[in-house]
Amino acid sequence: MALLPLVEILWRSLFRSGIPGSGPFVQHLTLWVGFLGAAIAAREGRLLALATGTFVPEGRWRRAAAVLAAAVAAAVAALLCRAGIGMVLVERQAGSEIAAGVPVWVGQLVLPVSFAIIALRIVWRASARWPGRLVASLGLAAGLWISQFPGLLEGKNPWPGVALVLIGTALGGPIFALLGGVAVLFFIKDGVPIAAMPVEAYRLAVSPTLAAIPLFTLTGFLLSESHASERLLRVFRALFGWMPGGTAIVVAVVCAFFTAFTGGSGVTILALGALLYQALRQESYREHFSLGLITACGSLGLLFPPSLPLILYFIVSQKVAIEDLFIGGLLPGLLLLGLTAAWGVREGMRSRAPRGRFAWREVAGALWEGKWELLLPALAMVAIFGGFATLIEAAALTVLYSFVVQCFVKRDLSVRRDLPRVLAETVVLVGGVLVILGAAMGLSSYMVDAQVPAQLVTWTRGHIHSPWVFLLALNVFLLVVGCLMDIFSATVVVVPLIIPIAAAFGIHPVHLGIIFVANLELGYLTPPVGLNLFLASYRFGRPVLEVTRAALPMLLILAFGVLVITYVPWLTTGLLALLGRP
């Protein structure tokens, strides 16, 4: 996936034309990497799920909950497998080609194969004992039976099935089962062939720009698995360490840098949490503050390019240019970063944390040591805004750059020992996200076909007449969505619903995108199921309630920032107007 776009850049510079079939092959490689990654995630028990299953008391009750959740998830995976087979058979008869004589159905084959593996792995991991696995396999059998005789449920009330899927997800089942299960039940109720589900997943996976997400994710993993964080920590300490709360400011900046590449995946907290927590505690910052700051900063950079959520918003909305979203997110991102830094300054003064002396020699030495990492965002932005590369090609350039720097220049990673592990981690994460996106795309497609967006527009315009009131209601709605859904699935499901409503109130499309991502960023800290709360609890071995209390001040501060972003649209559109972009 990385090599083809790189060769494309070279080929275009030499021969003034692209490589035939390069784009379609990269798109289908995204499909294969994503869904095989989901199968690997299922094997390792790492499919993304809500953390609500941890609320079930340990012992036999939790074991029973795990079996029930697995039975429901296996049923949904079996349904999606059967639907994928139907899609492949139809496409095989059509005889379409990807490029160079490779049939499209070969590319699509990964969907039913992956869902079959996922279903079997879910059953296997349902319990350590055979009776539990046998009960879970009943769900798999039920899914196959329903897929064979969908007419039995046609026209029937789907809500009992939806309730069962909701219960299974709440008990710890994977998120894709919730989205895919609800979509399939409503498709069957309306008499729509369930093959429509994998068709939508396929359409999203082979979109022209989706490959940028796994490529930028790989760049983020190459950085987080090396000593790049230590070099950046030194750079920002040299620049800000003399200020009150300097180390807290440094933590916020370093987290924002990494999250811009890894997205809201939790990599920042898991990979950098220990290093940053130790740096804060060594300089006398309170334990409570340190825990809350790192928890909040785990999603702080989602508005900075090359933000993965902004890329996905661009793909789903099809209303704005990705360059406009990157530009529009700069000032709002700096506002949230500045508010976090201001809280750090307050804490530094309160705890009387030691302050270093500003020394030009240390600044110069730190900048020289960290120059390779600091140049990375500039490389991506120059490639995109300078017109030298497409979004995917720019992502591939960052992969090549990070690979060369970390493996050969800095030699932090070994090509033989470390690179396979980094690639595997990337594939598992991308797979866990892409299978959710595919299921969410099916649900979104159903809602569009059912004219849900049009009905929402009519209802909203009949009950809300002020754009200000609408924006406040949108903030509340997105905050709830953000604490219940991951940012990627929320983007696919919710964005098609809110775009027509926002257009009816005259909200600038770029402003809407930034409001959306900023609210979802806040959702990572919102109890009861904000993802960062559970990741920090896992990383630092603290109860979720303790982490929630520690992060509460940051939640309130960032909520204020989101309100400012919402009601001061100039923060989003000002730079666009200055640069002459509509």
Quick structural overview:
The chain is an all-alpha fold and 582 residues long. It is 75% helix and 1% strand.
Question: What do these coordinates show?
Answer:
There is one protein chain. 75% of the residues lie in helices and 1% in strands. The protein has 582 residues and is an all-alpha fold. The protein starts with a helix and ends with a helix.
Task: State the helical fraction.
Answer: over 70%
- Which strand-content bin applies to the residues? under 5%
Q: Rounded to an integer, what's the Rg over CA atoms?
A: 24 Å
Lateral arrangement of strands in the main beta sheet: 1-2
Total helices: the number is 27
What is the mean pLDDT? Answer: 90
Number of strands: 2
Distance between the termini: 33 Å
List the helices and strands and how they pair.
Blueprint (H helix, E strand, L loop, with lengths): L2 H13 L6 H22 L16 H35 L2 E3 L2 E2 H5 L1 H16 L4 H19 L10 H12 L4 H15 L6 H10 L6 H13 L3 H13 L5 H17 L4 H16 L4 H11 L10 H10 L4 H30 L8 H10 L1 H15 L5 H19 L9 H31 L2 H12 L3 H18 L2 H18 L4 H15 L7 H10 L3 H24 L2 H9 L4
Antiparallel strand pairs: 1-2
Helix pairs in contact: 1-19, 2-5, 2-20, 3-5, 3-6, 3-7, 3-8, 3-9, 5-6, 7-8, 8-20, 9-20, 10-12, 10-19, 10-20, 11-12, 11-17, 12-13, 12-14, 12-16, 13-14, 13-25, 14-25, 14-26, 15-23, 16-24, 16-26, 16-27, 18-19, 20-23, 21-23, 22-24, 22-26, 23-24, 24-26, 25-26
Features:
two-stranded antiparallel sheet; mainly alpha; 582 residues; globular
